[in-house]
Structure prediction request, 750 residues.
Amino acid sequence: MSELFDAVDALLASRATLPPPAERKRLRAAHGLTIDEVATALKVRRATVSGWESGKTEPRPPERDAYARLLDKLAELYPAPADAAVPAPDAAVLATFTGAPAPAEVPTLSTGPASEAAVMTATENTQTPAPAPVAPVPAAAPRPASTTRPTSSTSRRPGAKKAAPAGTPAGESDPRFENGPLAVVDVEDGKVLAYCTGGLVLDVPAKSLPSLVDWTLKEAKLGQPKLSGPGRPADPLIVLTEAACERYGLPVAFTAEEKDAGRIPEGHKVVKQLVRADWKLTKRGFGPWARIYRPAKGSDRQCVQLCIPSWNALDARFWGDAAQLPPAELARVLGVYASRVMTPRGSTAVTGLELMTALHPPTHAVRDEETGALRQAETKTPGSLGKDPVDCAPCEAPDGHPLLADLPRFTVRGPDQKLFEEAYDWARPMTDDECTLRYLVGLDVNMAFAAGANGLNVGLGEPTHVKAPAFDPKLPGSWLVDLSHVDLSKVKVGKEWVELDGSLLPSPFTPKGDRPTGPAWYATPTVAYAQELGYDVAPIEAWVRYESGRYLDGWYGRLRDAYLATMADLGVDADLAPADFLAAMDGYKERDPELTIVVSAIKATVKGGLGKLRERPRGEGWRPGERWRALERPTWRPDIRAAVISRTRINLHRKIVKHAAFTGQYPIAILSDCVVYAASGPSPLDFLPYREGKPLPGGFKLGINPGLVKHEGTQTVLWGEEVREQFNAPELNLARSIKDGTVTDADNGE
Prediction:
């Protein structure tokens, strides 16, 4: 009889009722759970949960019953708002679980085409499924929102104003943040208006900046739910236009002195107003990204982030012309970024670093056994970097670091004293055969440094010094080892030894592509690659970190999803065939210039966030040998930055070797994540070895996923020779100019 009961229970579990896909996602996000956390709990792949939330697939027993139980519990904690319309379930799903045929036309919940394309990881021939790109979200209708005006309790409904275009994020499901993560405050016809995401416009009654802060915290209902379980919600962001600056007594632009200082003086009247109202500013003062707060009391946090574009808060190198956009359009750009990455906390670099911390908070709340109250734990959250900074190893320290204070002044450290893991800047003269070809074609690796971070095991604690260690490719650290014996003329590709023209290849061990001449410090991925190429390694000493983990996985996943979703909105899906992908990329920036800004900002968040891991002194009256402010952060980790750059460079070199072994073609220039080849035609398809639509395994593959490549630009071989002759530089790096043919040394933010 028990067997029959078990069979009945299994039958019931197979039909466990589930809410619609959009509600599943809402419930997970409301509790601050990531897709990875749900996947781990249910012992399924991340892509599986993503498919359940997109409506592409449905869970089956035994996971279905457990998933239904999770959603039921979350629904008790976070009931759907009373005015929320529940979308109709997909007709095909209904047919599956009721046995009825799907009607010809049933309104369905659409989240856009799901992608089955794989995201290339940093390990050879390993791929992980990409999540389904998010379809453009239609503009939300303005909703009632309370104000402090006695004559009105609703938001303005700008009937004649332009509605927010596609790509605007929907309002947050958390009722505390129902008006979205941010607002752009402007003044029109003497009235102060707050432009929120989704086309919502609120009346702002505040007459001064302190009262604006009060209104933001008490009335505006702005903010964003936390990104991880132990984390905290994002503070509301207020963006002040030039008109709003004038209204609240702030300068429209910095003076020369204020620009140098990066802030207005402490004696400014607005700063004094804030002080009188018991508001505080952070140590960086009132600058382009000002944080105004009162000390937290328990879980009650009072903090508002200000952004002032006219003070260069939105650097044009990363945000394009965002600072010149009208308020509604700027709210859309920043809102899409906030919903897909996080609410900006400063520059894209600062936000990239803050995202790491938001996904791995240093500490977490624990319940006091005696009082039952929640308090912040002193011990660090597992998998995080903790709340206390750690010193780097001497070889990882940049020049001027206190660890190097005993070195004689003006000492130039060599590779046997200093870890120097940087991106490629390499070029060589073209061969006679290459000069007979017509074109130079550039390939660019999508989100190369993000892909380098994916799956990377990094140190989470202090380094330990070891003499004559046995090399362990799974142990993060810095290794002093001689790799000069590695000969690129004969290397292992997979399990096979192949012969190559080593003179046409850059060394994988140095940024300039020069072959090492003796012992040097390398990060773990670089030394591991020497073994992969078939050569023994014997480290002399090392600084290793036994406490380690894949700290950047969630960071990578968040930024990858943001990038893929925004590119999908621009018409570039992750599952396009090679020729279709090249066609889709042609002119994609003109399809929606505002979303193009978001793409640029996402990519800058990756590079800037990694750069912040080894931030140098920024003024501060610093002198060599003294500590600087960034050293006091637990996220000042030059070893992690070095490991990511090392892995990114190795990933590219691995593809280059695979391509050379199969085709006999060699790059003529590499700059960071861009590589240039000579070809008979102007398209990447004229030299990439696709067979029946399939790329060379382990080689270059066209696609939008991180780690795959896109067409960077094409010039003629004649152009390349003329440029090198003009500058009398046979090894001028043509990758720097392949995009548009303009030779310049201007800073493009790379």
In short: The longest strand covers residues 300-307. The CA atoms of residues 688 and 700 lie 7 Å apart.
